[in-house]
Design a protein that fits this description.
single chain; mainly alpha; two-stranded antiparallel sheet; 20 helices; 4 strands; about 65% helix; globular
């Protein structure tokens, strides 16, 4: 173990790595409850999705540790799971949504193998990358409020405030306050702990039945048979290139940002500010997306929560291996997941939305040619209820305002191609 993970060279030890792995898992484990809750809205079986979520996270996190020797963990990503469930599946079915994830993973893999991602990264304006993250934050927060019943549809005003006295809605408000307090106090695993505490509150409110035996908490995982290998590839292709590109785009740049940010926190970057083995890390992430689609879950991506383990001293792949093993062990907590009400998971979407909105601080709103495309990107995602439409709107607006302002030299040639693709997306939508 010492020689494989080079623990002494990385100034760490087995105890520290195990502690870091447990910490990383605890900060990410909320996805085991939230992802099945989101994807089950498409008609996918909750238990099967939980199994797919745990297995894909466990295998890819272990693979990341073994291939790169980095303490990075992966799981089904927030934002893209919402796009999967609320933008693609209602139009083409969840099987086609799995097909979109599968194809986007293959695209990501090919781009990683060929080393093209670096060129794409240079071509996409930084403001649009940040706006995409912030827009997704608004999108999933809106979904969280909707699922909680805090925001409801209204014929006169499109949306309105819901009946806050309804038990599930009131429970969600309690859960949101619990999570907000835990986050404010910087409690590790605040989202997971908030979900569990809100679930306990639901017992006393009569929303969820109190567990009476160990079998209500521990049990065998649900079968993957209802969802594994159910990708509808022809249906995915009918959704159009922009939808597939949106999944790949978000996955690629979310992963790049997470790898660089976490790598900087762990002091992994070289003198040029680059992360060694970033190509291998991106390949593992792409493999995770393909594997997730095959098993029956949404896009698997590297989690920024990996910084929690890094903060605990995790410096090697052993941290990732420990976190991955814990994800696999969590398969036997399937009955516990069934006890968690939507009023406990909906607030988690709002909290994650808050965290993702932080990207907006790095957008230069004093420069209108940067601010307008970024704003359009963020605006379209929740209001058009589509991440793909938001990305397309931003790509279309960016070169137009730059050229009109006489600043066409700031526009990379590839950005014009993306603008043309966005135009086609809207014309033939």
């Amino acid at each position: 173990m010492e020689s494989f993970f080079r623990l002494k060279e990385k100034n760490t030890d087995v105890k520290t790595e195990i502690t870091a792995g447990i910490t990383t898992f605890m900060t990410m484990a909320y996805i085991l409850f939230v992802n099945p809750d989101i994807l089950s809205a498409t008609g996918m079986p909750f238990g099967a999705v939980m199994t797919a979520t745990a297995v894909s996270a466990g295998i890819t996190t272990i693979l990341m540790g073994l291939v790169t020797n980095y303490p990075f963990a992966l799981a089904s990503g927030m934002g893209l799971n919402a796009m999967f469930a609320f933008a693609v599946a209602p139009v083409a079915g969840w099987e086609a949504a799995l097909g979109v994830v599968f194809i986007s993973g293959i695209l990501f893999f090919v781009l990683s193998i060929m080393g093209i991602i670096d060129y794409i990264d240079a071509a996409i304006p930084a403001s649009l990358k940040r706006a995409t993250a912030a827009g997704i934050g608004l999108f999933i927060a809106f979904i969280g409020l909707k699922n909680a019943g805090i925001i409801v549809g209204d014929e006169a005003t499109i949306v309105a405030l819901g009946d806050l006295s309804q038990p599930e809605t009131f429970l969600a408000i309690i859960g949101l306050l619990i999570m907000a307090v835990l986050m404010a106090k910087k409690v590790r695993g605040a989202i997971l702990l908030g979900i569990l505490l809100t679930t306990v509150v639901s017992f006393f409110m009569g929303i969820t039945a109190f567990p009476t035996s160990l079998s209500d908490i521990f049990g065998a995982p649900a079968s993957l048979a209802p969802i594994a290998f159910h990708m509808d590839l022809p249906g995915a292709l009918r959704m159009g290139f922009m939808t597939v590109f949106a999944f790949a785009f978000v996955d690629i740049f979310d992963t790049l940002g997470t790898l660089m940010g976490t790598g900087a926190r762990a002091d992994f970057l070289d003198k040029e500010g680059r992360l060694p083995k970033i190509k291998e890390a991106m390949i593992v992430d792409a493999v995770g997306t393909v594997l997730g689609a095959v098993l029956g879950t949404s896009t698997v991506t590297t989690y920024v929560e990996s910084t929690a383990g890094v903060s605990e001293g995790g410096r090697s792949g052993l941290t990732a291996v420990v976190a991955g093993v814990l994800f696999l062990a969590s398969l036997f907590l399937a009955p516990l997941a069934g006890l968690v009400p939507s009023g406990a998971t909906a607030p988690a979407l709002v909290i994650v939305g808050v965290l993702m909105m932080g990207a907006v601080m790095d957008i230069d709103f004093t420069d209108f040619t940067e601010a307008f495309p970024a704003f359009v990107t963020m605006l379209f995602m929740p209001f058009a209820f589509s991440i793909a439409d938001g990305i397309a709107a931003g790509f279309l607006a960016y070169p137009i305002v730059k050229v009109v302002a006489g600043r066409n030299k700031e526009v990379h040639w590839f950005t014009y191609i993306l603008a043309l693709v966005a135009l086609v997306h809207f014309v033939f939508k």
